Amino acid sequence: VQLVESGGGLVQPGGSLRLSCAASGFTFSRYTMSWHRQAPGQERELVARISRDGARSYYADSVKGRFTISRDNGKSTVYLQMNSLRIEDTAVYSCNANGGLNGLYNYWGQGTQVTVSS
Question: For residues 14 and 84, is the Cβ–Cβ distance under 8 A?
Fold first, then answer.
């Protein structure tokens, strides 16, 4: 099983980034996918989550209206479009796959750094 994030980097406040998470080794369409982030000295927090069919999504209040999660089951990839970035969005962003009976299977990517700075 692999989850490989990409698309992180340095961006100015107000800018945009698009993160990608490419999955392999499991049946992607059967898993709920989510993005999480962890800033230095802080706990990891859920940013956004998307259902297996992409029909439903959830966003943390801090990113609602600025971030959009999407998925392409044909490409086994989940995306996070981040607009109007703020300094407080700086963190390591990781994707998560959760599935199986009662969410038994839980996989994490290695993370990608997003730094918002002027």
Answer: yes
- Report how far residue 33's alpha carbon sits from residue 50's, in angstroms, rounded to the nearest whole number: 6
**H helical segments located in 1-118:** none
How many CA within 13 A on the CB side of residue 60?
13
Work out the burial of residue 103: count CB atoms within 10 Å of its CB; fewer than 13 is exposed, 13-18 middle, 19 or more buried: exposed
Is pLDDT of 100 > 90?
A: no
| pLDDT for position 33 | 98
35 to each of 20, 95, 98, 118, how far by Cα in Å? 10, 4, 11, 25
Question: How far is 40 from 100, CA to CA, in rounded Å?
Answer: 32
Asked if the model's pLDDT at residue 52 lies above 90, the reply is yes
